[in-house]
C-alpha cells in the first residue's frame, strides 16, 4: 500500500515541479519542495498520515487565490482535478482538498481552524517557510512581483479584520511582517511546529529591527 502511495506522490511531485519551475514570486517549486519536506518531518514527529500530508503539501499552492483574482475555490478545484487525473481515490482526494481549502492565512482578525492533524502539519510547514531567512526573502520577492513598495513610514500596518480586507490590501513589504508574518509563530498548530518557529521568528524580528535602524539613518547633521 505504501509503495503505491509513494508512486502517486512522486508522480504528483513531478507534475508540480514542471508547473512551478519558473515561478518568480516566491511561490515556486523550491517553496513547495521545502514545505513538502517540512510537512513530512512534522508529520513523522506528530504521528500524522503521511500520504495525505505529502500530497497536500505538494498541491497546497496549485492555484493560489493571490494569482487568480481572489478566487478561493480554484485551488481546491485544481488540486482535486490533478489528483483524480493521477488516479487518487476519494480517501486521499477528500482530505487533501479540505486542507488546500483551509490552509491560507486570511487576515489577523480571521481564525479558520485546521480540522485534521494532517492539515495542521501542512499548514505549519507552509507557515514556517513564510518566516525566518527564507520568509524574509519570499516577502520581498512577492512584494516586488506585486509592485508593492518596500517600505513607506507614512503607511502604517493594518491588522485586517476580514478576509476581504486582507485580500484587498496593498501595503508595503515591511508592513506585511506586522500584518501576517510576526503573527505566525503563535498560530502554529503542532508542538513540533512551535519549536521550529521560535528561532525563525527571532531571526526575522532581528532583521526588521536592523532594517528600520538602517532606514532611519543618522547623518549626524540633524539638530
Automatic annotation (TrEMBL):
Record-annotated HD domain positions: 28-131
Gene3D superfamilies in UniProt: 1.10.3210.50
Alphabetized SUPFAM superfamilies for the sequence: HD-domain/PDEase-like
Designated name of the protein: HD domain-containing protein
Organism: Thauera mechernichensis
